[in-house]
TrEMBL record, chain A:
GO molecular function: ATP binding; ATP hydrolysis activity; transmembrane transporter activity
Name assigned to this protein: Phosphonate transport system ATP-binding protein
Lineage: Bacteria, Pseudomonadati, Pseudomonadota, Alphaproteobacteria, Rhodobacterales
A GO term from the CC aspect: plasma membrane
Keywords noted in UniProt: ATP-binding, Nucleotide-binding
SMART domains, per database record: AAA (SM00382)
TrEMBL record, chain B:
GO molecular function, a single term: ABC-type phosphonate transporter activity
Keyword hit for Transmembrane helix: yes
Keywords: Cell membrane, Membrane, Transmembrane, Transmembrane helix, Transport
One cellular-component annotation, GO: plasma membrane
Assigned protein family: Belongs to the binding-protein-dependent transport system permease family.
Name by which UniProt lists this protein: Phosphonate transport system permease protein
Lineage, top ranks: Bacteria, Pseudomonadati, Pseudomonadota, Alphaproteobacteria, Rhodobacterales
Subcellular location: Cell membrane
Length: 260, 266
């Protein structure tokens, strides 16, 4: 069955944590990276986004979080239309979102605990959240609890640039989860790890987000990860969304077509 | 088929390039003329210099106590001015760094002002502050503050623009405000560069502070001026040697500190 026929089969859902419609993004005068992309993600759903390198997956998800502005189209996060100018409102929305990237993106030279406390900057603000030394007791406790969940509590005082890749990524997950977000984006969270550490981080990440009911969109080049961890799979190829189907209806061979 | 001829040793310049070279040579010759080039006076100067050396040698030692106190004051001016300048540079650089907390208009205005601070020489700032706050070391210190601000404000801003954008993006996605992102993700990452730049600023401040006294802005420079004015060349030579020793010493300390602090921090 051609991939294109599988578009639009998602069941109607009442509450969408994310809805993008007619999204087009071009960097400057260059040809658009993708054109007219529409999809939505239900509360608590885990959606995999797959596609070859350079097809615009990262760009798409950065648009979806309002980190970069699309050229055309609309984005609704948690039922709120985002757009230029609405900074205060945007901040309130972002307090409920988070991003785990390919690189852990921890701040070097700061302690693991301070890095996790930074995950609360959407809720709290100001110098008390800059370092664990000044942080309110609740913030320190919440950060320790988050580190506990990723089995990194013993490293709370360690400098963030003295961790292994897998440990760093687990701390990044703790930082993303400490603020109890409703919507998380994971952009190839295990791409910089060796396969064993990658499996471990992936299993940990999904056990946590499933338990806490977080809505997740994740990019992965690992087809079996996309099918096993995703409820639904989106496929981006040649500047279009060419696949949007429940994971249980798909086989790995169905995804290969996206990489031609 | 590939072209395998050996390149000529000398390429013939194009007509335009030839004109360019000619113009550059004329410009340089014209500059020597403007600088009052005089082979005659150059020929006469070695004997005059030898005369100066013979009249200043050996360097005087009977003022060493007073000169040392003046040198301490010089270093105090340099340290106080550099520290204040560095501290002021952090918020100013945050306004100058593109995409950090302020918009492009503020970035440009702040960068232009910092450029002006750098463009006016330290000795001119000292003259301005002598008029503003009166003769003495305080005027010198203020001159060092402005000079340091012009230098560190610009380079701190460049350092902050150069850090990895990843951590800032991760914090943006959780709803952090720009000022918190700057404090949590950008400044810690730029810290080694800040320290290195600050140490250069301190070396620069020490060098500047030794001559501020020439215009009455405190420090050992005044002794140099008095030495020459009174034809007390041995004292003047002592001052020159003291300045050389202190400046070289501070430079070496800077090298050491940089290795120690940044080496450890990777
Ligand atoms: N900041 C940027 N400026 C200009 N072009 C970009 C930028 N980011 C990505 N691109 C281009 O957009 C395309 C899609 O990139 P990306 O979204 O990173 O793809 P993917 O994540 O699927 O590998 C690529 O061709 C890339 O070169
Ligand atoms: Mg990518």
């Amino acid at each position: 069955m051609p991939l294109d026929r599988k578009i639009g089969v998602s069941a109607p859902v009442l509450s969408h944590d994310l809805a993008v419609a007619g999204l087009t993004k071009a960097y400057g005068p260059a040809a658009p990276v993708f054109t007219d992309v529409s999809f939505s993600v239900a509360r608590g759903e885990a959606v995999a986004l797959v596609g070859a390198n350079g097809t615009g997956k990262s760009t798409l998800l950065r648009c979806a979080l309002g980190l970069i502005a699309p050229t055309r189209g609309t984005v609704d996060i948690l039922g709120t239309r985002i757009g230029p100018g609405a900074t205060a409102q945007m901040r309130g929305l972002r307090a409920q979102t988070g991003l785990v990237a390919q690189k852990h993106n921890l701040v070097p030279r700061l302690s693991v605990l301070s890095n996790v406390i930074h995950g609360l900057l959407g809720q709290g603000a100001g110098p008390r959240y800059w370092t664990h030394m000044l942080a309110p007791a609740e913030a320190r406790d919440a950060a320790m609890a988050a580190l506990e969940k990723v089995s990194m509590a013993d490293f709370a005082h360690r400098r963030a640039d003295r961790l292994s890749g897998g440990q760093s990524q687990r701390v990044a997950i703790a930082r993303a989860l400490v603020g109890r977000p409703r919507l998380l984006i994971a952009d190839e969270p295990t791409a910089s790890l060796d396969p064993a550490a990658g499996e471990e981080v992936m299993a940990l990440f999904f056990s946590l987000v499933r338990r806490e009911g977080v809505t997740v969109i994740f990019i992965s080049h690992n087809m079996s990860h996309a099918l096993s961890y995703g409820d639904r799979v989106l496929g981006l190829a040649r500047g279009q969304l060419r696949l949007n189907a429940p994971a249980r209806d798909l086989k790995i061979a169905d995804l290969r077509g996206l990489y031609d | 088929m590939t072209d395998r001829t050996i390149p000529a040793r000398f390429e013939r310049p194009s007509a335009l390039a030839f004109l360019g070279y000619g113009a550059a040579v004329l410009l340089i010759l014209w500059s020597f003329q403007g600088a009052g080039w005089s082979a005659d006076r150059l020929m006469r100067s070695p004997p005059a210099l030898a005369d100066f050396m013979s009249r200043s040698w050996p360097p005087s030692t009977h003022n060493l106590g007073r000169l040392s106190l003046k040198m301490v004051e010089t270093l105090q001016i340099a340290l106080a001015g550099a520290v204040l300048g560095v501290l002021l540079s952090v918020p100013v650089a945050m306004l100058a760094a593109r995409g950090l907390i302020a918009g492009p208009v503020v970035n440009s205005v702040v960068r232009i002002v910092l450029g002006f601070f750098r463009a006016v020489p330290d000795i001119a700032w000292a003259l301005v502050f002598v008029v503003a706050v009166g003769l003495g070391p305080f005027a010198g210190m203020l001159a060092i503050v402005v000079d340091t601000l012009g230098f560190c404000g610009r380079f701190f801003a460049d350092d902050m623009e150069g850090v990895d954008k990843g951590p800032a993006e991760a914090l943006t996605a959780t709803g952090a405000r720009r000022i918190d992102i700057a404090a949590c993700a950008v400044i810690p990452a730029a810290m080694p560069a800040f320290i290195s730049t600050s140490l250069y600023a301190l070396e620069k401040a020490v060098r500047s502070s030794t001559i501020l006294g020439l215009v009455g802005a405190g420090g050992i420079g005044i002794e140099l001026k008095v030495g020459f004015d009174l034809f007390d060349y041995p004292t003047a030579l002592t001052v020159i040697l003291m300045i050389a020793v202190v400046v070289i010493g501070v430079e070496q300390l800077g090298v050491l500190a940089r290795r120690k602090i940044i080496g450890v921090e990777r």
